[in-house]
Amino acid sequence: MPTSGRAWLIDLLKALGCVLIVLHHLAFYGPMSDVVMGVWPQLIEWLFDRARLAVQMFLVCAGFLTAGSLRHVMRLDAPLAAQWLWRRYLRLSLPLLAALSVVVLVSEIIRPGFDHPSLSALPTWWQAWAHVFLLQHLLDLEALSAGVWYVAVDFQLYALAMLVLAVAQRLSRWKAHTRAEVWCNRLWLMLAAASLWWWSGIESLDDYALYFCASYAMGWLAYQTRLARMAGKIGFSFGIVVILGAVALWLDPNWRLATALTVAALLVAAPQEWFAPPEGCGLWCRTIQAISRMSYAVFVVHFGISLAVNAWVSQRWPDQLLPNALGMLGSLALSLLAGALLFKYVEQPRPTVMRWLRWVGIFMLSVALAMHINSLAG
């Protein structure tokens, strides 16, 4: 069973999700997409409305992979949980801080000639520090980049997974005849039910893990069910969450839940061969694996790239279809390239406190420079 993104099926889902999210934001923010929409409205509307469903793919895959990575943790005490949470925070924050450093500078450089709603206001110091600690949405502050909310929710969901595991292990010691894995599945079922039937219907909770934990729980239970099947056992947990999800879908039909259920069911039912790279893995296969590996880096950096390309194209060819369509494709290609560089030089090296302090300093320096550029522009 895979415990990392190097499983082929998950690589494929992550790579597809990565490209769809970039295209969704290109369609959402414009103005290149506004020009393209005049000729291909259905394409832009689909990217606007449906491509964002890739978030559900990421959530399910994250739950699946987290279940695999925590599978062998026999005793989760407070020091170990704090260590793992800090490691997770470093992994998320280093690429994010680097990407935000780019975005705040790009925004102020292009602002004089690019008056567009996609540009965030000049950041304040309070806002910048809130981004460092992934608190911007909880403090009701404007995000400096698209998708920052997801980074914060991902960290919350990981912390929730640690809490569920710790509670399950405590319950298993209280009732020794029931294993921790069983308690874990029961707790995730309860969380999934609460999210499906209650929390996901409260829009004010969409900055919190509770709003999204149904999709994450589906991924977790999909892993456990697949593990049980491979051991020749019957896993009931995923079947129960499918029933809960189907009823919720019947009561309130929506594409988010349908996508999460479909991806989770695929991870449960897919043949084991689908988790291994195809035989004779060629360039296309290696490309998918590469995009999967750097998908997080692409996710956090692409908004700054798209701002720059949008500003450049709209100033030179504001109403011409071909340059704007090519601009969208070029922005996607440049985002992948920038993501590859960010992955290699920021995300891939071992995260340390010193590297975190360095990137916090670079981000704050970028904010100060953005303020200076803004003052010069008047």
UniProtKB/TrEMBL annotation:
The keyword Transmembrane applies. Keywords: Membrane, Transmembrane, Transmembrane helix. GO terms for molecular function: acyltransferase activity, transferring groups other than amino-acyl groups. GO terms for biological process: polysaccharide biosynthetic process. The chain crosses the membrane at residues 12-31, 51-68, 89-110, 148-171, 183-202, 230-251, 296-313, 325-344, 356-377. Pfam families: Acyl_transf_3 (PF01757). Coiled coil: none annotated. It comes from the Bacteria. The keyword Cytoplasm does not apply. One of its GO terms (cellular component) is membrane. Residues 10-337 form the Acyltransferase domain. PANTHER family: ACETYLTRANSFERASE, ACYL_TRANSF_3 DOMAIN-CONTAINING PROTEIN. This is Acyltransferase 3 domain-containing protein.
